[in-house]
Amino acid sequence: MKMKKIISSLAAAAMLLTANAGLTGVEAADDDMRDITTTELVKDMGIGINLGNTFEACPNWYEEDWIAKWSDGTPNDYEKAWGSPIITKEMIEGMAKEGFGVLRIPVAWSNMMEHDGTYTINPDYDARVHEIVDWTIESGMYAIINIHWDGGWVNKFPDDKDESMKRYTRMWEQIADSFKDYSDYLMFESQNEELGWESIWNPWGGTDGKAESYALCNEINQKFVDVVRGSGGNNSKRHLLISGYNTAIDRTCDDMFKMPSDPANRMAVSVHYYSPAGFAILEEDADWGKATPTWGSEQDYASLRSDMATLKSHFTDKGIPVIIGEYGCPTKNKEPESVRRFLSSVCEEAYKNGHCPIMWATPGGHYNRETFKMEDQELRKKLFEIGGKEFSPKQAVPAPVMGDVNSSGTFEVADLVTTQKWLLGSPDAALAEWKNADYDGDGRLDTFDLCLMRKDLLNKQ
Predict the structure, then answer these.
(1) Checking DSSP bridges between strand 367-368 and strand 373-374, what pairing results, if any?
(2) Across 237-246, 310-319, 418-427, least confident range
(3) What long-range pairs does 436-443 form, CB within 8 A, spacing at least 24?
(4) Residue 445 exposed, middle or buried by CB count within 10 Å (0-12, 13-18, 19+)
(5) Separation of alpha carbons 440 and 446, rounded Å
(6) CA dist., res. 378 & res. 385, Å (int)
(7) Which among 138, 42, 102 has a CA at the least distance from the CA of 388?
(8) Cα–Cα distance for residue pair 94/374, rounded to 1 Å
(9) Any idea what the Cα angle at residue 365 is, between residues 363 and 368, rounded to 5°?
(10) Percent of the chain residues topping a pLDDT of 90
(11) Is the full-model pTM beyond 0.85?
(12) What is the average per-residue pLDDT within 169-194?
């Protein structure tokens, strides 16, 4: 009873504070965002790896959701749909121990989404991605999350631009808000490879529609920047990765591709490298190309050097760092030595030109998710020598205790008293962790937070 009387008296004081129009709150600080350029951040990443065919596993947008139909419809069911085991902290930590400094996490956010036109991301799916990002950062790696292929709905932009832009905007509003308090060890990527539409412009059929297709790509990337920058928290200074036109080097280096306007000037550009397609994509002959089992001719090396130099002159030398978001090749029907030669050569040439190369890896591929090691340890050694990082896990930060402004580890009446005194301007009131009292999440402390603190404390009695 005595405790409730104390809390009640503090509530009366809170009402008095509400009437004092002269009081203002404290704005959120970006304590977790270092004063470094995006070029410096990309350099610190070293070399990277993808968590492929995992959180982007999904049905086509026009298909029945067979994953939900034949399972319990949980995040883990989608995670396993394309052959991945359930991801564990040990798997993520193993990537860091092998020398990778950044993990790209492709995500299909439409999984488990309600089809009611609101494009609301499922909270359980969001929480699972949070868990993976947390493990990544705790392991000492940077994390990149994006909207990946996601069933292919982005291909509908030319036919239904308004609805597609609404969906894209709503999704990035939610993603940005959900991750807004993460440090600069988390980067957002605007999209995967889908920004570029052959239904508007056929790159092999002249220039008709080219300007229109590039303009749409540029508009979507600008929307991404605008949404993230306006989402609060650390997002005003978060480093962003801008998807190139179809992430193709030649198309992204075309003058029609424009980097968005960014008030923070913290952007890198993303391209992918699967060239030559006969080796890097095809496992067997197709109607559009012939599969080749080997790589390493003089012409292969010359083409690789030319592509990386083009990126350097077009972007890096102008202050726009480059991330090779994906590079890789299959192992089926390929000479093992050629696979090793290709992957290490692309990594080395990219890194030498100042780019961050992120290898594409899927279940059963180059990184073994059961042993937590690279399948080819000779390749691992070569990659590490190029730009690998020593394993250096971060200290896991315990979850904050709401209301605990004194950093005691518990929320008690003393925290409420200290917060009230601080709001009254008392010189002996200091808040060690003021964010723990920001109950309404608006990035400032005021009497509304004090009232919510009181209610929370009463509920704990």
Answers:
(1) antiparallel
(2) 418-427
(3) 436/400, 436/401, 436/402, 436/403, 436/404, 436/405, 436/411, 437/402, 437/403, 437/405, 438/28, 439/402, 439/403, 443/27, 443/28, 443/232, 443/233
(4) buried
(5) 10
(6) 11
(7) 102
(8) 9
(9) 70
(10) 77
(11) no
(12) 97
Q: Give residue-wise pLDDT tens across range 211-247.
A: 999 999 999 999 999 999 999 999 999 999 999 999 9
Location of structure tokens 């200091």: 430
Whether the bond between 85 and the residue before it is cis, its omega within 30 degrees of 0, is no
CB 327 within 8 A of CB 339: no
Active site residues: 193, 326
Tokens (6 digits) for 25: 């709150």
Report the b/e string of 197-218 with b at 16+ CB within 10 A.
beebbebeeeeebbeebbebbb
Integer angstrom CA distances of residue 210 from 78, 213, 257, 269, 272: 36, 5, 11, 20, 21
Q: Which residues contact 313 (CB under 8 A, 6 or more apart)?
A: none
Structural domains in the chain, CATH included, are 2-29+400-460 (1.10.1330.10), 38-387 (3.20.20.80)
Sign of CA dihedral 120, 122, 125, 131: positive
